[in-house]
User: Which sequence fits this backbone?
């Protein structure tokens, strides 16, 4: 009888073990449903307040990436372009590259004694931002291209990397890369997760952005379009280098942006984001795409957490663009009301 009891217990144990294994290998429909619901309900833009802007972005992405949708966009055509200054990071009280240029002028001034009495170099040496901003665009561009030239691309890359690792914003007193917008970082990640190919298309210098943008935004060097100096190849006694010349080759701003997109990307964007009239032509170009498209303006409305400016600002003027966005129904992100937080990596 003891033998029969043992056999019965063994048989019962085996049945129980088989049941537990089956449960482990095949989750219940209830478990599967819960998993799916959790995935679908996860918030891809947690730093955005629920509202028109956030809903418009999510609705667009779902529509154009869902197979079978009338607005489905093939992966190869999912091109998204982003301005940098004022769109992905701050730009007040002056473009951050200008602060790098000012420090670079000061470094080089020992070899250029004539600069101490010549504007805009004098203002740069003295870090007189008010005087600097009174100079003509041409004078500033000439200064920028001069101090960015006469070095190899590798040398310039190191100069920028060393600077951006330590330089601090004059009023925020934090690293410039700490002034990138957390909600826009989330937007970049959301689009990448849905197989969009992202490009920075900025009036800023291409070599300047390449030194740090991949580490900050996760956008590689070959997906950055920007203003550029002329360059030349130097065989350099068997150690070939590319040298930056002190002359402007391409200005990637305003009408230059769609030209640069066509030249360097070769596909019309379906998603474009900017913050100023300098981005208007890029958004207009995107709006002409045969595919469903999305145009976004970041409107600087938060004087407490960032800065508030638009139509009359000398930096990041948003005047014509604001009117056209209203006329055409483009998405205008109200920084103060649409974003739970502004900064953060």
Assistant:
């Amino acid at each position: 009888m003891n033998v029969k009891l043992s056999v019965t217990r063994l048989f019962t144990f085996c049945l129980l073990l088989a049941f537990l294994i089956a449960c482990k290998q095949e989750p219940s429909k209830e478990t599967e449903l819960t998993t799916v619901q959790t995935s679908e309900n996860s918030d891809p833009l947690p730093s955005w307040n629920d509202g028109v802007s956030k809903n418009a972005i999510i609705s667009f992405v779902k529509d154009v990436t869902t197979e079978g949708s009338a607005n489905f966009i093939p992966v190869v055509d999912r091109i998204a372009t982003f301005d940098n200054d004022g769109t992905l990071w701050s730009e007040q009280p002056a473009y951050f590259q200008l602060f790098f240029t000012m420090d670079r002028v000061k470094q080089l001034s020992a070899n250029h004694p004539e600069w101490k009495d010549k504007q805009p170099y004098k203002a740069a040496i003295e870090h007189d931002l008010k005087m600097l901003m009174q100079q003509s665009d041409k004078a500033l561009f000439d200064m920028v291209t001069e101090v960015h030239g006469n070095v190899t691309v590798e040398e310039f890359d190191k100069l920028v990397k060393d600077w951006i690792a330590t330089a601090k914003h004059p009023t925020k007193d934090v690293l410039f890369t700490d002034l990138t917008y957390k909600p826009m970082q989330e937007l970049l990640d959301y689009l990448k997760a849905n197989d969009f190919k992202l490009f920075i298309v900025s009036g800023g210098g291409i070599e300047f952005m390449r030194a740090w943008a991949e580490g900050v935004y996760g956008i590689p060097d070959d997906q950055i379009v920007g203003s550029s100096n002329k360059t030349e190849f130097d065989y350099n006694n068997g150690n070939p280098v590319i040298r930056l010349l002190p002359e402007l080759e391409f200005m990637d701003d305003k009408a230059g942006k769609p030209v640069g997109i066509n030249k360097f990307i070769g596909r019309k964007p379906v998603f474009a984001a900017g913050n100023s009239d300098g981005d208007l032509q890029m958004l207009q170009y995107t709006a002409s795409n045969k595919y469903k498209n999305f145009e976004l303006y970041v409107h600087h409305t938060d004087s407490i957490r960032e800065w508030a400016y638009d139509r009359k600002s000398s930096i990041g003027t948003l005047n014509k663009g604001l009117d056209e966005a209203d006329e055409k129904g483009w998405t205008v992100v109200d920084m103060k009301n649409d974003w739970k937080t502004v900064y953060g990596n």
Observations:
- Residues 1-39 have pLDDT under 50 and may be disordered.
- The longest strand covers residues 224-234.
- The CA atoms of residues 269 and 286 lie 5 Å apart.
- DSSP finds 15 helices and eight strands in the chain.
